[in-house]
Specification:
Elements (H helix, E strand, L loop, with lengths): L5 H13 L2 H8 L3 H15 L4 E4 L2 E4 L1 H28 L5 E7 H6 L1 H11 L4 E7 L1 H9 L5 E4 L8 E15 L14 H6 L3 E3 L4 H12 L9 E3 L2 H9 L5 E4 H9 L4 E3 L7 E9 L6 H11 L19 E2 L8
Parallel strand pairs: 3-4, 3-5, 4-12, 7-8
Antiparallel strand pairs: 1-2, 5-11, 6-9, 6-10, 6-11
Pfam family, one: HTH_1
Protein name: LysR family transcriptional regulator
Family: Belongs to the LysR transcriptional regulatory family.
Amino acid sequence: MTGPDIEGLRLLVLVGEAGSLGRAAERLRISQPAASKRLSALERRLRLVLVVRGPRGSELTPTGRAVAAWAERVLAEIDALVVGAAALRGEQDNDLDVAASMTIAEHLAPAWIGTLRQRAPELYVRLQVTNSEHVAALAAREEIGLGFLESPTVPGGLTSRRVAADRLAVVVPLDHPWARRRTPVRPDELARTPLIVRERGSGTRDTLDRALERTGTTPVRPLLELGSSTAVRSAVAQGAGPAVLSALAVAADLADGRLVEVTVEGLDLHRVLRAVWPARRRLGGAAAALLRVASGGRPQVRRTAAPSAPDRASRPARGSSPAP
């Protein structure tokens, strides 16, 4: 029997993580019919039933879970091989400079970098934490190997790939009138309310402004403009006023009852989180390996999502903020 297809193994692992063949196919950027054929081919090659397909999604069989666990180890070794081979070719010097916008840097990038370093322990990673506009500028000037941003658009000259999904949440302190409100807030009402916001150039601020623009409303002058999500969260918790932040950033506060999320009617605050690099440059070495980790089955944000545990293996660049 010939060995299994590597991409088939990767697909199997993603089906187990996503609980859906369609979502797994989306993460691999292939069509669902192509994914179904690839999975069927893997089952035929191994002569095992790996997945049960049903109206609510796809579920790994007990045999499929065992194979997926082995596959994860195989894929980890392959990623280590790719990084090591690139080093032998001289394409990298075991250093990787990465920049990420605030939400990604605080809640997703540490886990991605930690996974990569488990596969390539000799790799030294420097993570700059900044806003999306600056991430794009650093990538365009090729000052970083890979960037992660959360803005709704990608500047020209950059190649991008979706790595995760996120949504923004309107949050208020416990004593705010909206905390006791039983009907949704309207978009025009939100736009007329002075909010605590991130600085211009941040993906969170751009996403909010564009979402309001699509409803035909323009936000009034902010109540406060702060340079980090942590500062915005603290201001809201202290009773300064309402804010709009990533659901990742406020998940713990909502779960513990320190903040209250307010429903806004007819306002789409979902967004895509992307990796970026110069369009003229072929991504390789450690940067390509990190991209594979980041796009390989990260969960989408749900209302009950909790922040990722920090990883202490990544080291910040001089003058940049450390990844928590």
